[in-house]
C-alpha cells in the first residue's frame, strides 16, 4: 500500500470546545446481500455508544465514509442521514429490513424455459453474451433513488456531519480502479493517481453507486464520464489492491473497516456440492470443483482477500513507525494509521445455505441450470436480499460488535461523539 502523508487543511474535524480530534473513517467493503452484516455491526456500535454515554444527543461518529460495491450503498445511505447522529444507523437497518430481491434485481424468463435446466442455461448464456450480465438491475436504480437523498448528502457535508464520502468502482474500459469522492469543496481537493488506481473529486450520483455495486457477471456495467470520455464500470472490489488507500488520501487517522469475508469455508463436502467423501475414506473436498464451487471461490477472492492483506500491511507500517525515535519518524514520508477490522465470526456461506429456498424461483432455476447452486450458499449469499437472511446477518453483526465491546469503545473517540450533550 502506498501512503500519502499529505493532509488537507480540512483533515481534522472540530471536537469539543473547538479542539481537534483524530479523524475517524468508516470503510465498508462489498459483498452484495452479505453487507447486511455491516448494518448489524453498526447498529450494535450505536447501542454500545448510547450505553457508554447515556442521555443527550450523539453526533455521527465518523468523519469519512468510504464504501465499495454494496458497501458503497451503505456508506452513501449513512451520508444522506448523518445529520441525525447515531439514529442514522437505525435508519439504515430499517432500509435493509424492508428490502426484497425484487427491489434489487429481476430475471424474466419465458415460461417454457423454466421447465428445462438445459434450456435455462442456454437462454441465460445468450442473454449474458448480449447484455454482459444475467440480471436486470433497474429495480435497484429505483430503490436507490427512493432511499438515498443526494441533497441529504450535500446537507451532511455542508453541516459538517461528515467530511467526505467516497465510493469505488473498477473500469472495464481502462482496467483502472477509481475512487470517486464528494466533499463540501471538491475544487480544493488534490486528485491522486497511483499505478492502477485513481482518485477523483466530484458530486456523486446514483450512477456512481450502480457502477460500484455491479457484481461481476450478475449485474450490468454502468457508464460514467471520466477524463472527458465515457468508460464502463463494474464492482469496485475488482482490482482493489489497496482498499484502505482512500482513507489514507482523505486524511484518516483512525479507521474502522467492516468486511463480509468469513473465517473458513462452510464445509459442505465436495466443492461441487456432492458429499463425495462420505463413506469412502477420502477427505472432504477431494472431488473436483463444480461451477458453484469455482464461482463461490472467485467471489470470495474478489470481496475478501485484498482487505486482510492491506490491513496487515498498514498495521505493520504503523507498528514500525511507532517504534522509531520521534525525530526520525518525522523525517519519514509516512504517518501512523490505527486500523480496526471486523469480519464475520461465522461462515456466511453456511448461513446462506439455510435460506437458499428464499431466492426468487426464476433465479433459483436459472442458477441451478448453470450448476451454480450445487454448493448452495456461496453464490446465493450475494443475492439473498430477503428479510430472513438479512435479519440473520444483522443479528450476527450485532453479536460480533458486542463481543468486541471493549475494543470498539476503546478504539473510537466516544468523548467526541457525545460532546453535544
Q: What is the helix fraction of residues, given as a range?
A: 40-55%
Number of helices: 16
Major sheet, described briefly?
10 strands, mixed
- Look at the structure and give the mean pLDDT: 80
Cα separation of the termini: 39 Å
Question: Which secondary-structure class do the elements indicate?
Answer: alpha/beta
Would you list the SSEs in sequence order as H and E? EEEHEHHHHHEEEEHEEHEHHEHHHHHH
How many individual β-strands?
A: 12
Per DSSP, what share of the residues sits in E-state strands of 2 or more residues?
5-15%
Rounded to an integer, what's the Rg over CA atoms?
Answer: 22 Å
Shape, per Cα inertia axes: globular
In the predicted model, the low-confidence regions spanning at least 5 consecutive residues are 1-19, 265-285
Q: What does this protein look like?
A:
The protein is of the alpha/beta class. It is built from 16 helices and 12 strands. The strands form 2 sheets. Strands 3, 4, 5, 6, 7, 8, 9, 10, 11 and 12 form a 10-stranded mixed β-sheet that branches. Helix 1 packs antiparallel against helix 3, helix 1 crosses helix 14 and helix 4 packs across helix 12. The longest helix is centred in the last third of the chain and has 33 residues. The protein is globular and about 70 Å long. The protein starts with 12 loop residues before the first strand and ends with a helix.
Amino acid at each position: 500500500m502506498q501512503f500519502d502523508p499529505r493532509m488537507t487543511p480540512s483533515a481534522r474535524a472540530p471536537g469539543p470546545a473547538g479542539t481537534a480530534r483524530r479523524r475517524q473513517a468508516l470503510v465498508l467493503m462489498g459483498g452484495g446481500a452479505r453487507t447486511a452484516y455491516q448494518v448489524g455491526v453498526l447498529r450494535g456500535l450505536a447501542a454500545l455508544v448510547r450505553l457508554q454515554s447515556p442521555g443527550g444527543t450523539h453526533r455521527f461518529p465518523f468523519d469519512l465514509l468510504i464504501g465499495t460495491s454494496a458497501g458503497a450503498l451503505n456508506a452513501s445511505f449513512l451520508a444522506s442521514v448523518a445529520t441525525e447522529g447515531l439514529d442514522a444507523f437505525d435508519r439504515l437497518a430499517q432500509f435493509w429490513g424492508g428490502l426484497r430481491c425484487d427491489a434489487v434485481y429481476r430475471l424474466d424468463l419465458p415460461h417454457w424455459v423454466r421447465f428445462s435446466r438445459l434450456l435455462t442455461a442456454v437462454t441465460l448464456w445468450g442473454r449474458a453474451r448480449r447484455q454482459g450480465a444475467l440480471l436486470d438491475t433497474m429495480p435497484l436504480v429505483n430503490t436507490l433513488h427512493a432511499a438515498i437523498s443526494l441533497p441529504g448528502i450535500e446537507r451532511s457535508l455542508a453541516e459538517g456531519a461528515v467530511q467526505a464520502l467516497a465510493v469505488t468502482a473498477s473500469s472495464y474500459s481502462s482496467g483502472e480502479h477509481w475512487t470517486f469522492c464528494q466533499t463540501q469543496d471538491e475544487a480544493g481537493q488534490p486528485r491522486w493517481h497511483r499505478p492502477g488506481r485513481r482518485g477523483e473529486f466530484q458530486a456523486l450520483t446514483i450512477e456512481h453507486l450502480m457502477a460500484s455495486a455491479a457484481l461481476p457477471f450478475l449485474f450490468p456495467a454502468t457508464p460514467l464520464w471520466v477524463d472527458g470520455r465515457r468508460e464502463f464500470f463494474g464492482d469496485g472490489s475488482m482490482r482493489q489492491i489497496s482498499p484502505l488507500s482512500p482513507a489514507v488520501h482523505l486524511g484518516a487517522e483512525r479507521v474502522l473497516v467492516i468486511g463480509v469475508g468469513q473465517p473458513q469455508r462452510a464445509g459442505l463436502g465436495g466443492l461441487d456440492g456432492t458429499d463425495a467423501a462420505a463413506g469412502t475414506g477420502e477427505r472432504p473436498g477431494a472431488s473436483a470443483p463444480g461451477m458453484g464451487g469455482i464461482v463461490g471461490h472467485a467471489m470470495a477472492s474478489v470481496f475478501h482477500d485484498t482487505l486482510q492483506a492491506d490491513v496487515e500491511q498498514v498495521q505493520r507500517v504503523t507498528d514500525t513507525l511507532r517504534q522509531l525515535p520521534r525525530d526520525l519518524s518525522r523525517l519519514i514520508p509516512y504517518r501512523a494509521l490505527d486500523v480496526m477490522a471486523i469480519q464475520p465470526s461465522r461462515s456466511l456461506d453456511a448461513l446462506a445455505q439455510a435460506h437458499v429456498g428464499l431466492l426468487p424461483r426464476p433465479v433459483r432455476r436459472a442458477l441451478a441450470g448453470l450448476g451454480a447452486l450445487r454448493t448452495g450458499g456461496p453464490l446465493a449469499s450475494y443475492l439473498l436480499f430477503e428479510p430472513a437472511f438479512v435479519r440473520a446477518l444483522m443479528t450476527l453483526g450485532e453479536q460480533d460488535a458486542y463481543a468486541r465491546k471493549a475494543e470498539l469503545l476503546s478504539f473510537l473517540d466516544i468523548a467526541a461523539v457525545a460532546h453535544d450533550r
